[in-house]
Amino acid sequence: MQKEVRQPQRWFNTADITVSHQSNLLKQLNHQRRQELFCDCSVLVEGQLFRAHRNVLFASSGYFRMLLSQGPDGLPDSVSATFDVFSPETFTVILDFIYSGQLDLSSHNVIEVMSAASYLQMNNVINYCKNFIKSSLDISVKDEESERCLSLSETCSFTSGAGEDASEQQQQGPCSVSPPPALWTRDNSRSQSSFMGKDPDQDASASALKTNPSSPANELSAEAEDLHDPQDPLYTLPGSERRRGKGGTKRRAPNSSRSNQHDDLDIQEARTQKAEKAEELYATLPPIVGVIGHFNKDSNPIMRFKCPFCTHTVKRKADLKRHLRCHTGERPYPCQACNKRFTRLEHLRSHFETIHQARKLVCRKCKCQVTEETGHVVCEGTRRYRMCTACIQEVGCDDIPIDGMEGPNEEPALLLGVDGEEEGDTKRSWMVTDDDDLAEDSGADLIIQQVDDSDEELQ
DNA sequence: CTGGGGAGGGGGCCC
DNA sequence: GGGGCCCCCTCCCCA
C-alpha cells in the first residue's frame, strides 16, 4: 500500500474573500463612474445628466433591465434615459446606493426615494424605505418608554452587503440590512427603530394583493395591520369599539383605564404625533408618483399612481390619497355620538345611520312594512332596528327598556362609546325609542366634522 | 361546526 | 379633487 502523501491544507475563508472581492469590485465601478470611465449609459433627471454603466443599472433595477433589454439586437454604443418623476437629488441617492450599497435616507427624502425606487423597480430599496417609514411610524404605547430612552438622530444610513446580489437581496428582504442606529424624528421626543425586535421580513414583491390573501404580497396587508396596531391608542379609541383584524369591530378595549387621565393624555399625545406623521408623509409625497401601468389597445402606456407603501396602484391621485389613509392610520371623520373614527365620510355616515339611527322602515322581527308611527326603534346593544308594535309586545315590553320610560333626565343612552358600557347582557341594553326620542339623542343628529387628530377631544 | 347577517373597510368609478 | 355610490371582502356574532 502506498502511503498517501497529504499536502498541508490551507484553509481559506472563501466567504470573506468573496465579500472582499465584491466590495473591491463595487468600489472600482464606483470609482469608474465618478471618473466617467467606460460609462455607456446616460440618465437625464430633470435636466441633470448622470453617467453610469449599463450593466450595473441592468443588474440593479428592473426598470433599466426592461429598458435595456427592449432595444434592438445590437445595442447602441450609448443608451440614455430621461426622468421627470423624481429629482436629481433622489436619483443621486439611488445611484449612490447602486454603486456603494449605502442608502442615505432621511425624513425628508424617504418618500421620494421610495417612489423613485418603485418607479425603477428596486425592491430592496423599497424594503429599506418601508422599514424606515414603518419604524418611524411605530409609536405604540407599549414601546414608548423604551423608545424615549434611546438616542436620536435626524438621518440614518442603511447599508447593504457590498456587492450583494440584487435578487438575493430581494429575497432576503431587509434582513440583510443593518438597521439604522436611530431614526428620524421631528421633535426629538421619540426615536429608535423598533424593528430590531420584529420580524422585518416584508417582501415588496409585486403580486396581486387582493386575489390571494395568503400570498407574500399580502404581507403588505399585514404590515398595514401593524400600522393599525390594536395596541395603538389611536386605534383603540376611548369608548369606541376595538378592531381585530380587517373589518372586525366587535371587541371592546377594557375600559378600566378609560377614566385614567394619564392614559387619555398619552392617547392624545400619541394621536397628535400620529397625525403629525401622516401630515408629514403627505407633505413629503412627491408631486408625481406615477408608474407605467398596463398598455391600452393602442399600446400606449396608461399612467397610474403607485402607493409608496405597497404595490397598489390607482388611476387617480385622489384615490391614492384616500388609499394612503389605510397606511397612515389617519381617521379624520369621528362619530359625534360614539367617538369612533373613520377614514371616509361615507363610512361615518353609514355607521351613523346603521348604529345610531334605524332607517329601514321594516320590522326587524316579522319583516312587515312599518311607518314612522307604527315602527319603533329598538336598541339591542350597539344595534338599532325598527320593530312593529305587535312584535314589541310579543317580545315583551318588560324585557325591553323603552326610551322615554327611563325618566326625563336619563342619559339618552347611545350605548356605543359610553364608558362602562355593559357587555354580554344584551337584554338590559334593549331600548325602544320613537323617532322623536331618537332625534333628542345626543348622537342622533349627524354632525359631520372633519377634525385633526390633534384637535379631537377625548371625552 | 356552519351559515346568515351585521358592521366596517377598501377599491373602482361616476358626477 | 371631493363627494358619493356601488360592490366586494373580511371579521364577528348568533342561531
From TrEMBL:
<dbReference type="InterPro" id="IPR000210">
    <property type="entry name" value="BTB/POZ_dom"/>
</dbReference>
<keyword id="KW-0804">Transcription</keyword>
<dbReference type="InterPro" id="IPR013087">
    <property type="entry name" value="Znf_C2H2_type"/>
</dbReference>
<feature type="region of interest" description="Disordered">
    <location>
        <begin position="160"/>
        <end position="266"/>
    </location>
</feature>
<feature type="compositionally biased region" description="Basic residues">
    <location>
        <begin position="243"/>
        <end position="253"/>
    </location>
</feature>
<dbReference type="InterPro" id="IPR011333">
    <property type="entry name" value="SKP1/BTB/POZ_sf"/>
</dbReference>
<feature type="compositionally biased region" description="Polar residues">
    <location>
        <begin position="204"/>
        <end position="218"/>
    </location>
</feature>
<comment type="function">
    <text>May be involved in transcriptional regulation.</text>
</comment>
<keyword id="KW-0539">Nucleus</keyword>
<keyword id="KW-0805">Transcription regulation</keyword>
<feature type="domain" description="C2H2-type">
    <location>
        <begin position="305"/>
        <end position="332"/>
    </location>
</feature>
<dbReference type="GO" id="GO:0000978">
    <property type="term" value="F:RNA polymerase II cis-regulatory region sequence-specific DNA binding"/>
</dbReference>
<dbReference type="InterPro" id="IPR036236">
    <property type="entry name" value="Znf_C2H2_sf"/>
</dbReference>
<dbReference type="Pfam" id="PF00651">
    <property type="entry name" value="BTB"/>
</dbReference>
<feature type="domain" description="C2H2-type">
    <location>
        <begin position="333"/>
        <end position="361"/>
    </location>
</feature>
<dbReference type="InterPro" id="IPR050457">
    <property type="entry name" value="ZnFinger_BTB_dom_contain"/>
</dbReference>
<dbReference type="GO" id="GO:0000981">
    <property type="term" value="F:DNA-binding transcription factor activity, RNA polymerase II-specific"/>
</dbReference>
<keyword id="KW-0238">DNA-binding</keyword>
<keyword id="KW-0479">Metal-binding</keyword>
<keyword id="KW-0597">Phosphoprotein</keyword>
<keyword id="KW-0862">Zinc</keyword>
<keyword id="KW-0677">Repeat</keyword>
<feature type="domain" description="BTB">
    <location>
        <begin position="39"/>
        <end position="107"/>
    </location>
</feature>
<dbReference type="GO" id="GO:0008270">
    <property type="term" value="F:zinc ion binding"/>
</dbReference>
<dbReference type="GO" id="GO:0005634">
    <property type="term" value="C:nucleus"/>
</dbReference>
<protein>
    <submittedName>
        <fullName>Zinc finger and BTB domain-containing protein 8A</fullName>
    </submittedName>
</protein>
<keyword id="KW-0863">Zinc-finger</keyword>
